[in-house]
């Protein structure tokens, strides 16, 4: 052993001990371990710190450090750290089956062990019609089976935790898999040709309908289904199965994908339901909210929309509301502002709301000046209140589809033209238009990239007077009808309680449109 003098510090003593360690034949491993510990640089630094704290007068900082190091709280934290660091948190798997060696002799069989929590395994199965074998039908992206990389589509499942599945029904097998907690052992015959792991897709879809897997009898596995609401953005991570896609909800913390009906499959069964008379087409003839914009202040008796009459034949065309492919879009500084379209149910008074917001900031927002065939009044100016045209000119423009909507009121024609919108945007102003919902089809183009706001008044539960209650009921029906027929095209619903709060909310929406990113149809960006 080395001779240590009283003057040598802890650091020098540690270095001397390290140099004198010589492993012998009997305790070679222990000596190597001690040498590694004593040679650790962090231990050497710690010894230096201890020496500094023990020698000579201490500064206020050193005293504070010594106080912290000797405090019960820090000692407790270090003790907990050491306790946790010494534990082994790897999953404890059960012993291998007794016949495991025999299984290895069969090259076609493999034993797969997975560790899962309460989450589903993330795989669906099917029974092969010809052989009766239980086959892995699909692997859910992000699930336990997918993360393991050990189970593949086409694998034949023989046993689950030592229990044969050869004569079990698929629902019994699914229940056995879902009830297994912690470790799960699978006996599998690998597919002859394992499919390459599909790369995660970058396809995003806006859902145009509500979907509840537990109510869908056609789904191959209700527990694996992904519920969603109309308007949710879905990332479709696999379209390998033409009937059932795998998708995730954007913004959902769940990393596992779920099953959703594919666009083709959903359209096929909607067509079948319409054929069987159990579902009404989204464009089937109904009592439409047709006519002119409410800004023209037409009464219910006098309102008559020429555009509604012209599009009667379109109502017979079936439109299946399934999915719309979307992408992220943010307005660039050199681009024309997006068109803001306001639609409203009865009682919303959206023209009043629009005019108030424009009056507060006329340099940023403007309205599309409408056309009319009525005579100009003395105080009116051409191109300010209206564009005054002859009936012949108006009819010609209408015939050439230059109006997004038009109609007649007290023997005079009124309409909003596409050029009027372009004129506002050419001045780098955001154009606000309030239209009947039927006009949305003509406006939803890559040129305008419209942001659609559905304004509806907040209605009280009931009124005492019978006439007032009838008005409220009509307003409710109006809002329900618009939501049912056109809700899938709406970007934002604005509940109008009073003018002040509604104006403030509308201003906030318009400001965010100029600086934030929004989901839009992919055709608007690629066009």
TrEMBL record:
Domain L27 as annotated: residue spans: 39-92
PDZ domain spans which residues? 111-192
Where does the record place the Guanylate kinase-like domain? 337-511
Coiled coil ranges (UniProt) are 465-516
SH3 domain: from which residue to which, for each copy?
Answer: 200-270
The segment annotated Disordered runs over 282-316
Protein name per Swiss-Prot or TrEMBL: Membrane protein, palmitoylated 3a (MAGUK p55 subfamily member 3)
Q: From which source organism is this entry?
A: Cyprinus carpio
Where are the compositionally biased (Basic residues) regions? 294-303
Taxonomy, superkingdom: Eukaryota
Q: Is the keyword Calcium in the record?
A: no
Query: Which keywords has UniProt assigned to this entry?
Result: Coiled coil, SH3 domain
Instruction: Kindly give the InterPro entries that the UniProt entry links to this protein.
Output: GK/Ca_channel_bsu (IPR008145), Guanylate_kin-like_dom (IPR008144), Guanylate_kinase_CS (IPR020590), L27_C (IPR014775), L27_dom (IPR004172), L27_dom_sf (IPR036892), MAGUK (IPR050716), P-loop_NTPase (IPR027417)
Ranked from the top, the taxonomy reads: Eukaryota, Metazoa, Chordata, Craniata, Vertebrata
What family does the entry list? Belongs to the MAGUK family.
């Amino acid at each position: 052993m080395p001779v240590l003098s009283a003057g040598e510090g802890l650091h020098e003593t540690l270095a001397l001990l390290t140099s004198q360690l010589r492993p012998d034949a009997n305790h070679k491993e222990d000596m190597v371990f001690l040498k590694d510990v004593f040679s650790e640089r962090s231990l050497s630094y710690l010894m230096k710190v201890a020496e500094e704290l023990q020698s000579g007068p201490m500064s206020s900082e050193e005293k504070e450090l010594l106080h912290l190091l000797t405090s019960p709280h820090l000692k407790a934290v270090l003790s907990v750290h050491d306790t946790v660091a010494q534990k082994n948190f790897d999953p404890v798997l059960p012993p291998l089956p007794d016949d495991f060696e025999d299984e290895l002799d069969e090259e076609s069989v493999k034993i797969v062990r997975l560790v899962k929590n309460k989450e589903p395994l993330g795989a669906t199965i099917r029974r092969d019609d010809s052989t009766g074998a239980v086959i892995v039908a699909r692997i859910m992206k992000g699930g336990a089976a997918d993360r393991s990389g050990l189970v593949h589509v086409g694998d034949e499942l023989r046993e689950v935790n030592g229990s044969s599945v050869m004569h079990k029904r698929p629902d019994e097998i699914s229940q056995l898999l879902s009830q297994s907690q912690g470790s799960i052992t699978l006996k599998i015959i690998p597919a002859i040709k394992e499919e390459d792991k599909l790369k995660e897709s970058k396809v995003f879809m806006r859902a145009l309908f509500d979907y509840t897997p537990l109510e869908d009898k056609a789904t191959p596995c209700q527990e694996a289904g992904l519920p969603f609401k109309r308007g949710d953005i879905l990332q479709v991570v696999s379209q390998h199965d033409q009937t059932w896609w795998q998708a995730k909800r954007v913004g959902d913390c769940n990393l596992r994908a779920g099953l959703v009906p594919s666009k083709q499959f959903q359209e096929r069964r909607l067509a079948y339901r319409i054929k069987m008379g159990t579902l009404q087409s989204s464009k089937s003839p109904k009592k439409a909210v047709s006519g002119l914009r409410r800004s023209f202040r037409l009464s219910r008796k006098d309102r008559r929309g020429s555009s509604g009459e012209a599009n009667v034949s379109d109502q017979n065309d079936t439109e299946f509301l399934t999915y719309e492919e979307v992408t992220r879009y943010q307005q660039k500084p050199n681009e024309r502002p997006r068109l803001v379209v306001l639609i409203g149910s009865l009682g919303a008074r959206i023209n009043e709301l629009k005019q108030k917001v424009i009056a507060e900031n006329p340099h940023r927002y403007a309205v599309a000046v409408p056309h009319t065939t009525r005579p100009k009044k003395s105080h009116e100016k051409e191109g300010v209140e209206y564009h005054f045209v002859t009936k012949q000119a108006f009819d010609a423009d209408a015939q050439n589809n230059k109006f997004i909507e038009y109609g007649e009121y007290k023997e005079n024609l009124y309409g909003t033209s596409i050029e009027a919108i372009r004129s506002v945007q050419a001045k780098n102003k955001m154009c606000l238009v309030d239209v009947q919902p039927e006009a949305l089809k003509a406006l939803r183009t890559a040129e305008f990239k419209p942001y659609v706001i559905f304004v509806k008044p907040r209605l009280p539960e009931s009124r005492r007077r019978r006439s007032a209650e009838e008005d409220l009921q009509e307003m409710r029906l109006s809002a329900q009808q618009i939501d049912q027929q056109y809700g899938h095209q709406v970007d934002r619903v604005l509940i109008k309680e009073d003018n002040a709060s509604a104006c403030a909310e509308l201003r906030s929406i318009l400001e965010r449109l100029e600086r934030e990113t929004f989901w839009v149809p992919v055709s608007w960006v690629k066009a």
